[in-house]
Amino acid sequence: MSATSDMEQRTAARPRTVPLTGMRGAIARNMEQGWSVPRVAQSIEADVTALQDLRAAAGEGERSSLTAYVLRAVALCLREHPRLNARLPDREIEVMDDINLGLAVSLGEGLMVPVLRNADRKSTAELAAEARALAEGVRTGTLSPGSYQRGTFTVTSLAGTAIDSFTPILNAPQVAILGVTRVTAKPVARGNAVAVAPMMGLHLVFDHRAVDGYPAALFLGALKHRLETAEGL
Questions:
Q1: In a domain, 130, yes or no
Q2: What string of pLDDT tens digits covers the 233 residues of the chain?
Q3: How far apart are CA 201 and CA 165, in angstroms?
Q4: Is 208 a catalytic residue?
Q5: CATH code for position 222
Q6: Catalytic residue, candidates 81, 203, 208, 225
Q7: 176 within domain boundaries
Q8: Does 26 map to a domain?
Q9: Dist CA 183 CA 41 (whole Å)
Q10: Contacts of 213 by beta carbon, 8 Å cutoff, 6+ apart
């Protein structure tokens, strides 16, 4: 083999590099900050039969996504469990009055998190419309910098994938994030009988400096109850 062809082979074998600058660099810094937090993960499953019935009863043009129902349920549960609607920017916990939900939107080159402000004051239909508009704005690059600021809690979804469980990284300085996974048909006990029900995975990660395991579990249990009963949705 000639020296020239050997050099050509080595040149061709070099990996393509992606510099940690711009959006990818910002994501890397945020992930490193979130990873350094003493975090705990909890998971639960919710039977979404009631939500599917609610969606089926709506008109074709009025049907909201399951994600919109989750956003509404999360916002209402945060009213009752405000310690998870908080930020920890330095050495003190800021329990926030406004419930501003960050919604993770995936792009080819990264992940952006626009914010639905005052989410607890909006209906499921309003949240669905705003979430669609924000996602479109992320993909077209038309959102203002303010659209990504002042979030108090984040929801991220892998429901469109084959993943059943994951532990999302905190969107620091927020103290909690909820991951949502796909709905799958599973056997469940109902009284003394076994039935098959559509089950959604809910995966909470929280900053243990700000929230202990028991109150976090109460929040996750309340979220499961609200999704299963469609109360207030």
A1: yes
A2: 555 565 555 555 677 776 655 555 566 666 666 566 778 999 999 999 999 999 988 877 778 899 999 999 999 999 999 999 999 988 899 999 999 999 999 887 778 999 999 999 999 999 999 999 999 999 998 999 999 999 999 999 999 999 999 999 999 899 999 999 999 999 998 889 999 999 999 999 999 999 999 999 999 999 999 999 999 99
A3: 7
A4: yes
A5: 3.30.559.10
A6: 208
A7: yes
A8: no
A9: 20
A10: 40, 42
